[in-house]
Amino acid sequence: MTTRTAVNPLTTLERRALQSITTPEGSMLIVAADQRNGMKAAIPDAPGGSEAITRDELSAVKADLVRHLARHAPAILLDPEVALPSIVDEGVLDRDTALVVGLDASGFETVDGLRYTRFVPGVTPRTVRELGGGVAKMLYYTRPDRQDENSRVFDEIRALVAECEAEGLLLIVELLTYQLDGESDEEYAAAFPSLVADGAALAVAAGAKILKLQYPGSGEASAAVTAAAKGVPWAVLSAGVDHETFIVQVSEAVSHGAAGAMAGRSLWKDSLSYDPARREELLTTRALPRLRELADAVDGRR
Question: Does the bond joining 85 to the residue before it have cis omega, within 30 degrees of 0?
Fold first, then answer.
Protein backbone atom coordinates (compact mmCIF):
# COMPACT_ATOMS: atom_id res chain seq x y z
CA MET A 1 0.00 0.00 0.00
CA THR A 2 1.35 3.38 -1.01
CA THR A 3 2.09 5.46 2.06
CA ARG A 4 -0.14 8.52 2.23
CA THR A 5 -0.26 11.38 4.67
CA ALA A 6 -3.79 10.85 6.00
CA VAL A 7 -5.88 13.38 7.82
CA ASN A 8 -6.52 10.72 10.49
CA PRO A 9 -3.10 9.13 11.18
CA LEU A 10 -2.83 5.58 12.44
CA THR A 11 -1.45 4.71 15.85
CA THR A 12 1.42 2.23 15.99
CA LEU A 13 -0.99 -0.59 16.94
CA GLU A 14 -3.35 0.33 14.12
CA ARG A 15 -0.49 0.42 11.64
CA ARG A 16 0.52 -3.10 12.60
CA ALA A 17 -3.08 -4.23 12.30
CA LEU A 18 -3.31 -2.72 8.82
CA GLN A 19 -0.23 -4.68 7.76
CA SER A 20 -1.96 -7.88 8.86
CA ILE A 21 -4.83 -7.41 6.39
CA THR A 22 -2.68 -6.56 3.37
CA THR A 23 -0.91 -8.54 0.68
CA PRO A 24 2.91 -8.67 0.63
CA GLU A 25 2.71 -5.82 -1.86
CA GLY A 26 0.72 -3.76 0.65
CA SER A 27 -2.85 -3.87 -0.71
CA MET A 28 -5.85 -4.60 1.47
CA LEU A 29 -7.46 -7.96 0.69
CA ILE A 30 -10.10 -9.44 2.99
CA VAL A 31 -12.48 -12.34 2.39
CA ALA A 32 -15.87 -11.31 3.80
CA ALA A 33 -17.75 -14.17 5.47
CA ASP A 34 -19.74 -12.32 8.13
CA GLN A 35 -23.03 -12.73 6.27
CA ARG A 36 -25.72 -14.75 8.01
CA ASN A 37 -29.02 -14.88 6.11
CA GLY A 38 -27.21 -13.96 2.90
CA MET A 39 -24.89 -16.93 3.26
CA LYS A 40 -27.80 -19.26 4.01
CA ALA A 41 -29.44 -18.14 0.78
CA ALA A 42 -26.26 -19.12 -1.13
CA ILE A 43 -26.61 -22.79 -0.11
CA PRO A 44 -28.99 -24.08 -2.82
CA ASP A 45 -29.12 -27.75 -1.86
CA ALA A 46 -30.02 -27.45 1.82
CA PRO A 47 -32.72 -29.96 2.86
CA GLY A 48 -35.87 -28.02 3.66
CA GLY A 49 -34.51 -24.85 2.04
CA SER A 50 -32.08 -22.23 3.25
CA GLU A 51 -34.33 -21.07 6.09
CA ALA A 52 -34.06 -24.52 7.66
CA ILE A 53 -30.27 -24.29 8.04
CA THR A 54 -29.35 -24.33 11.71
CA ARG A 55 -26.76 -22.16 13.41
CA ASP A 56 -24.40 -25.14 13.75
CA GLU A 57 -24.80 -26.06 10.08
CA LEU A 58 -24.06 -22.49 9.00
CA SER A 59 -21.05 -22.44 11.32
CA ALA A 60 -19.73 -25.56 9.58
CA VAL A 61 -20.12 -23.88 6.19
CA LYS A 62 -18.20 -20.83 7.43
CA ALA A 63 -15.47 -23.07 8.84
CA ASP A 64 -15.00 -24.74 5.46
CA LEU A 65 -14.92 -21.35 3.77
CA VAL A 66 -12.06 -20.43 6.11
CA ARG A 67 -10.25 -23.74 5.53
CA HIS A 68 -10.46 -23.86 1.76
CA LEU A 69 -10.51 -20.19 0.76
CA ALA A 70 -9.65 -17.62 3.42
CA ARG A 71 -6.42 -19.31 4.48
CA HIS A 72 -5.06 -18.13 1.11
CA ALA A 73 -5.89 -14.47 1.88
CA PRO A 74 -4.31 -12.01 4.31
CA ALA A 75 -7.52 -11.76 6.35
CA ILE A 76 -11.03 -13.03 6.93
CA LEU A 77 -14.06 -11.06 8.15
CA LEU A 78 -16.28 -13.15 10.45
CA ASP A 79 -19.30 -12.56 12.66
CA PRO A 80 -19.54 -13.08 16.44
CA GLU A 81 -23.02 -14.64 16.22
CA VAL A 82 -22.33 -17.82 14.22
CA ALA A 83 -18.65 -18.15 13.30
CA LEU A 84 -16.96 -17.04 16.49
CA PRO A 85 -15.48 -18.11 18.80
CA SER A 86 -15.67 -21.70 17.48
CA ILE A 87 -13.58 -21.13 14.35
CA VAL A 88 -10.76 -19.79 16.52
CA ASP A 89 -11.18 -22.20 19.42
CA GLU A 90 -11.23 -25.25 17.13
CA GLY A 91 -8.04 -24.20 15.33
CA VAL A 92 -9.73 -23.69 11.96
CA LEU A 93 -8.30 -20.22 11.42
CA ASP A 94 -4.75 -20.36 10.06
CA ARG A 95 -2.14 -18.63 12.19
CA ASP A 96 -1.13 -16.40 9.25
CA THR A 97 -4.69 -15.23 8.47
CA ALA A 98 -5.74 -12.09 10.32
CA LEU A 99 -9.17 -11.98 11.93
CA VAL A 100 -11.53 -9.07 11.35
CA VAL A 101 -14.66 -9.17 13.53
CA GLY A 102 -17.91 -7.64 12.32
CA LEU A 103 -19.78 -5.65 14.96
CA ASP A 104 -23.01 -5.00 13.04
CA ALA A 105 -26.18 -7.02 13.47
CA SER A 106 -28.23 -8.10 10.45
CA GLY A 107 -30.78 -5.65 9.12
CA PHE A 108 -31.44 -2.01 9.98
CA GLU A 109 -33.97 0.27 11.58
CA THR A 110 -35.56 3.23 9.82
CA VAL A 111 -36.03 6.57 11.57
CA ASP A 112 -37.48 9.54 9.67
CA GLY A 113 -36.74 7.79 6.39
CA LEU A 114 -33.06 7.12 7.19
CA ARG A 115 -31.47 3.75 7.90
CA TYR A 116 -29.43 2.88 10.97
CA THR A 117 -27.55 -0.29 11.83
CA ARG A 118 -27.21 -1.85 15.25
CA PHE A 119 -24.46 -3.67 17.10
CA VAL A 120 -24.68 -7.40 17.63
CA PRO A 121 -26.09 -7.56 21.18
CA GLY A 122 -23.34 -7.62 23.77
CA VAL A 123 -20.51 -7.15 21.26
CA THR A 124 -18.06 -4.30 21.88
CA PRO A 125 -14.50 -3.44 20.87
CA ARG A 126 -13.35 -5.38 23.96
CA THR A 127 -15.31 -8.41 22.70
CA VAL A 128 -13.33 -8.29 19.45
CA ARG A 129 -10.14 -8.70 21.47
CA GLU A 130 -11.67 -11.54 23.49
CA LEU A 131 -12.62 -13.33 20.26
CA GLY A 132 -9.04 -13.13 18.97
CA GLY A 133 -9.49 -10.26 16.52
CA GLY A 134 -7.13 -7.38 15.94
CA VAL A 135 -9.43 -5.48 13.57
CA ALA A 136 -13.11 -4.54 13.89
CA LYS A 137 -15.63 -3.66 11.19
CA MET A 138 -18.85 -1.70 11.54
CA LEU A 139 -21.43 -0.94 8.85
CA TYR A 140 -23.19 2.41 8.59
CA TYR A 141 -25.85 3.49 6.13
CA THR A 142 -25.30 7.03 4.89
CA ARG A 143 -27.14 9.69 2.92
CA PRO A 144 -24.73 12.62 3.15
CA ASP A 145 -27.20 14.82 1.30
CA ARG A 146 -29.34 14.56 4.45
CA GLN A 147 -26.68 13.96 7.11
CA ASP A 148 -23.86 16.23 8.24
CA GLU A 149 -21.51 16.64 11.18
CA ASN A 150 -24.48 17.24 13.46
CA SER A 151 -26.13 13.93 12.52
CA ARG A 152 -26.64 10.74 14.49
CA VAL A 153 -24.51 8.67 12.11
CA PHE A 154 -21.59 11.12 12.42
CA ASP A 155 -21.73 10.88 16.22
CA GLU A 156 -21.93 7.07 16.08
CA ILE A 157 -18.87 6.78 13.84
CA ARG A 158 -16.87 9.22 15.95
CA ALA A 159 -17.72 7.40 19.18
CA LEU A 160 -16.78 3.96 17.84
CA VAL A 161 -13.50 5.22 16.35
CA ALA A 162 -12.55 6.51 19.79
CA GLU A 163 -13.60 3.27 21.54
CA CYS A 164 -11.61 1.12 19.14
CA GLU A 165 -8.53 3.31 19.38
CA ALA A 166 -8.69 3.08 23.19
CA GLU A 167 -8.88 -0.70 22.86
CA GLY A 168 -5.93 -0.80 20.43
CA LEU A 169 -8.13 -1.97 17.55
CA LEU A 170 -8.09 -0.84 13.96
CA LEU A 171 -11.67 -0.05 12.88
CA ILE A 172 -12.85 -0.50 9.30
CA VAL A 173 -15.82 1.79 8.67
CA GLU A 174 -18.09 0.30 6.00
CA LEU A 175 -20.53 2.68 4.32
CA LEU A 176 -23.56 1.85 2.22
CA THR A 177 -25.64 4.48 0.52
CA TYR A 178 -29.21 3.67 -0.51
CA GLN A 179 -32.27 4.88 -2.36
CA LEU A 180 -34.76 6.93 -0.37
CA ASP A 181 -38.49 6.36 -0.43
CA GLY A 182 -39.93 8.42 -3.26
CA GLU A 183 -36.58 8.83 -5.00
CA SER A 184 -36.68 7.66 -8.61
CA ASP A 185 -34.17 5.19 -10.02
CA GLU A 186 -32.87 7.91 -12.30
CA GLU A 187 -32.44 10.40 -9.48
CA TYR A 188 -30.59 7.89 -7.33
CA ALA A 189 -28.32 6.75 -10.16
CA ALA A 190 -27.37 10.36 -10.90
CA ALA A 191 -26.62 11.07 -7.24
CA PHE A 192 -24.85 7.78 -6.47
CA PRO A 193 -21.21 8.72 -7.24
CA SER A 194 -21.46 11.88 -5.14
CA LEU A 195 -23.20 10.02 -2.32
CA VAL A 196 -20.29 7.56 -2.11
CA ALA A 197 -17.67 10.33 -2.14
CA ASP A 198 -19.55 12.60 0.25
CA GLY A 199 -20.21 9.67 2.58
CA ALA A 200 -16.47 8.99 2.65
CA ALA A 201 -15.81 12.65 3.48
CA LEU A 202 -18.36 12.55 6.31
CA ALA A 203 -16.82 9.41 7.83
CA VAL A 204 -13.31 10.82 7.56
CA ALA A 205 -14.47 14.00 9.30
CA ALA A 206 -15.77 11.74 12.08
CA GLY A 207 -12.31 10.20 12.45
CA ALA A 208 -12.49 7.06 10.29
CA LYS A 209 -9.06 5.66 9.42
CA ILE A 210 -9.98 2.83 7.03
CA LEU A 211 -13.01 2.79 4.73
CA LYS A 212 -14.92 0.01 2.98
CA LEU A 213 -17.01 1.55 0.19
CA GLN A 214 -19.22 0.76 -2.76
CA TYR A 215 -17.66 1.11 -6.19
CA PRO A 216 -18.76 4.63 -7.19
CA GLY A 217 -19.30 3.78 -10.85
CA SER A 218 -16.19 4.85 -12.77
CA GLY A 219 -12.51 5.69 -12.60
CA GLU A 220 -13.31 9.39 -12.42
CA ALA A 221 -15.72 8.80 -9.53
CA SER A 222 -13.11 6.62 -7.80
CA ALA A 223 -10.61 9.46 -8.04
CA ALA A 224 -13.22 11.74 -6.43
CA VAL A 225 -13.61 9.26 -3.57
CA THR A 226 -9.84 9.15 -3.11
CA ALA A 227 -9.76 12.93 -2.91
CA ALA A 228 -12.66 12.99 -0.44
CA ALA A 229 -10.91 10.42 1.77
CA LYS A 230 -7.97 12.79 2.28
CA GLY A 231 -5.35 10.05 2.48
CA VAL A 232 -7.49 7.58 4.42
CA PRO A 233 -7.19 4.18 2.65
CA TRP A 234 -10.39 2.82 1.12
CA ALA A 235 -11.24 -0.63 -0.14
CA VAL A 236 -13.97 -1.61 -2.59
CA LEU A 237 -16.73 -3.95 -1.43
CA SER A 238 -18.25 -6.44 -3.84
CA ALA A 239 -21.94 -5.68 -3.14
CA GLY A 240 -22.98 -9.06 -4.54
CA VAL A 241 -21.91 -8.42 -8.15
CA ASP A 242 -20.44 -11.30 -10.15
CA HIS A 243 -16.72 -11.93 -10.00
CA GLU A 244 -15.94 -10.75 -13.52
CA THR A 245 -17.68 -7.42 -12.90
CA PHE A 246 -15.96 -6.98 -9.56
CA ILE A 247 -12.50 -7.56 -11.01
CA VAL A 248 -13.09 -4.75 -13.51
CA GLN A 249 -14.38 -2.47 -10.74
CA VAL A 250 -11.44 -3.19 -8.45
CA SER A 251 -8.87 -2.68 -11.20
CA GLU A 252 -10.44 0.66 -12.11
CA ALA A 253 -10.73 1.80 -8.49
CA VAL A 254 -7.15 0.78 -7.63
CA SER A 255 -5.81 2.65 -10.63
CA HIS A 256 -7.56 5.75 -9.24
CA GLY A 257 -6.39 5.53 -5.65
CA ALA A 258 -8.26 2.70 -3.91
CA ALA A 259 -6.12 0.64 -1.53
CA GLY A 260 -7.67 -2.80 -2.02
CA ALA A 261 -10.84 -4.87 -1.86
CA MET A 262 -13.04 -6.77 0.56
CA ALA A 263 -14.96 -9.49 -1.24
CA GLY A 264 -17.64 -11.89 -0.10
CA ARG A 265 -20.38 -13.13 -2.38
CA SER A 266 -18.45 -12.35 -5.57
CA LEU A 267 -16.00 -15.02 -4.45
CA TRP A 268 -18.19 -17.71 -2.90
CA LYS A 269 -21.90 -17.17 -3.65
CA ASP A 270 -21.99 -20.05 -6.17
CA SER A 271 -19.37 -22.17 -4.36
CA LEU A 272 -21.29 -23.33 -1.31
CA SER A 273 -23.09 -26.60 -0.76
CA TYR A 274 -24.79 -28.40 2.10
CA ASP A 275 -22.54 -31.40 1.34
CA PRO A 276 -19.02 -30.89 2.80
CA ALA A 277 -17.23 -32.76 0.01
CA ARG A 278 -19.01 -30.79 -2.69
CA ARG A 279 -18.36 -27.58 -0.75
CA GLU A 280 -14.62 -28.27 -0.62
CA GLU A 281 -14.56 -29.00 -4.34
CA LEU A 282 -16.37 -25.79 -5.27
CA LEU A 283 -14.37 -23.57 -2.94
CA THR A 284 -11.09 -25.06 -4.18
CA THR A 285 -11.79 -25.14 -7.92
CA ARG A 286 -14.08 -22.13 -8.33
CA ALA A 287 -13.69 -19.65 -5.48
CA LEU A 288 -9.94 -19.97 -4.89
CA PRO A 289 -8.93 -19.08 -8.49
CA ARG A 290 -11.16 -16.01 -8.14
CA LEU A 291 -9.36 -14.99 -4.97
CA ARG A 292 -6.01 -15.27 -6.72
CA GLU A 293 -7.29 -13.17 -9.61
CA LEU A 294 -8.57 -10.60 -7.13
CA ALA A 295 -5.14 -10.50 -5.46
CA ASP A 296 -3.66 -9.63 -8.85
CA ALA A 297 -6.23 -6.86 -9.26
CA VAL A 298 -5.64 -5.21 -5.89
CA ASP A 299 -1.90 -5.32 -6.46
CA GLY A 300 -2.28 -3.67 -9.87
CA ARG A 301 -1.19 -6.67 -11.92
CA ARG A 302 -4.31 -6.62 -14.11
Answer: yes
Residue 117: half-sphere exposure toward Cβ, Cα within 13 Å: 21
pTM greater than 0.85 (yes/no) = yes
CA angle at residue 143 from 179 to 261, to 5 degrees? 85
Burial class (CB in 10 A: 0-12, 13-18, 19+), 188: middle
Point out which residues pair with 172 in neighbouring strands.
137, 210
Name the residue type at position 273. Answer: S
In a domain, 178, yes or no: yes
Residue 3 lies in a domain: no
What does the alpha-carbon distance between residue 112 and residue 291 come to, in Å, rounded to a whole number? 40
Span 186-235, pLDDT tens digits:
999 999 999 999 999 999 999 999 999 999 999 999 999 999 999 999 99
Q: Is residue 278 part of a domain?
A: yes
CA-based radius of gyration for the chain = 18
- Asked if residue 78 is part of any domain, the answer here is yes
The domain of 243 spans 12-298
- pLDDT digit string (tens) for 65-122? 999 999 999 999 999 999 999 999 999 999 999 999 999 998 999 999 999 999 999 9
Domain of 188, CATH number, reads 3.20.20.70
